[in-house]
Amino acid sequence: MAKQKKYIVFGSPYIGREEIDEMVRTLKSGWIGTGPKAAKFEQAVCDYTGARYGLALNSCTAGLHLSLLVCGIKPGDEVITTPLTFCATVNTIIHVGATPVFADVDPGSMNIDPKKIEQAITKRTKAIVPVHLAGRPCEMDEIMRIAKKHNLFVIEDAAQALGSAYNGRKIGSIGDLTCFSFYVTKNVITGEGGMVTTANKEFADKIKIYALHGMSKDAWKRFSDDGYKHYQVIFPGYKYNMTDMQASIGIHQLKRIGQFDKKRQKIWNQYNAAFSGLPIGLPAPIDKNIYHNKHLYTLLIDKKRAGVSRDEFMRRLHERGIGTGVHYIPVHLHQYYRERFGYKPGDFPNAEYIGERTVSLPLSAKLSQSDVNRITRAVSEVIVD
Ligand SMILES: *Cc1c(COP(=O)(O)O)cnc(C)c1O
User: Fold this and answer.
1) Fewer CB within 10 Å, N- or C-terminus of the chain?
2) Averaged pLDDT for residues 342-365
3) What is the CA radius of gyration of the chain?
4) pLDDT by residue (tens digit) across 277-326?
5) Among the CATH numbers 3.20.20.150, 3.40.640.10, 3.30.499.10, 1.10.10.10, which is that of 17-255?
6) 66 Cβ partners below 8 Å, 6+ apart?
7) Kind of pairing, strands 153-157 and 297-300?
8) Where are the chain's structural domains?
9) What is the pLDDT of residue 384?
């Protein structure tokens, strides 16, 4: 029997010896909840991004939720974001009782179009949540200018953008609050995990408290060797803290980010070279003023040009043992958003055009050269067939 080729899972992370050793040390230390390693990881992310404060959480979704809360976003408020994003960006706006308002994307960058943001602003608008899709930074100068002019908060969904930079500033040091994800498919992973960065001490203090039941500061130390400490609940908080087990992975992943980026860049270049002659859309060229962390490599498959639909393309790659992803079916087209807000196809044409055609290929530091060769060959076969 012929040996089945290994399936190339979309977004499979690279995990090295150091992560495993650190995890074992953490387990043996007995302190596996939130403690010194979560604090160390927070500091490491601050050092890396240039942020003043970092708050380690159990997800980026938690970070988005708490960021909206500390900005005081509440029922009756409107928050402007992109329809071309993961549902969590928008769900968290719903969680605080506010109304999400979409602004369509730029067809090239696939990111929220600042001109459309300005058109969507009303008296009720309180914040903008730009999403750096695929790791490509949004037009932050323009977005910060609009926010300042209209007195709005900027909460960046940087789930995909750790390491990216705009005009020489790393993502994490620009908006009022920035939310990163360390979910398994991201550039740096902790299994599940997230972090909010901010330069605002009041926001940082509140997030720390809100993320752990609303217990007064440093309540996490209440069982430490300093002896038991009483705490006060000062807000009906959440359970959003990152554990030292998660941070054990993150600390070493972050040390590898330069090496990961190099690998991603190399694969990106190989994909560009292999696909440049095919009748499919490739990622837009990268502007000189940004650094793109190459989180996702996305193709646009148009049935009329390519001869196959996006979904058929994905099915055929799957048959060849290659996993792919879709980033994204626009949020306004999902059932809940259609039913609650009356959205319909045609409302955000650029996001919808991309949503019907986009597909993300595996792009991870774990891929071997033979994996990459298999992927480029399979794409060419499926498109030419
Ligand atoms: C992954 C992702 C999230 C959610 O991150 P979690 O850490 O899983 O909560 C939110 N927004 C975008 C754009 C993402 O890619």
Assistant:
1) N
2) 97
3) 21
4) 999 999 999 999 999 999 999 999 999 999 999 999 999 999 999 999 99
5) 3.40.640.10
6) 55, 57, 196, 206, 207, 210, 211, 238, 240
7) unpaired
8) 17-255, 257-384
9) 79
State the pTM of this model: 0.96
* Among 296, 273, 275, 281, CA closest to 378: 275
- CB of 194 closer than 6 A to ligand 1? yes
Q: Which tokens belong to 246?
A: 């998660």
Query: 161 CA to middle of ligand 1, Å?
Result: 10
| Candidate of 181, 293, 295, 360 to mutate for ligand 1, largest count of ligand atoms within 8 Å of Cβ | 181
Q: Does ligand 1 lie within 6 Å of residue 86's CB atom?
A: yes
The three-point CA angle 112-86-258 to 5° equals 80
Domain 257-384: CATH class, spelled out? alpha beta
Could you tell me the pLDDT band of residue 1, with boundaries at 50, 70 and 90? very low
Catalytic center residues: 186
Going by pLDDT thresholds of 50, 70 and 90, the confidence category of residue 218 is: low
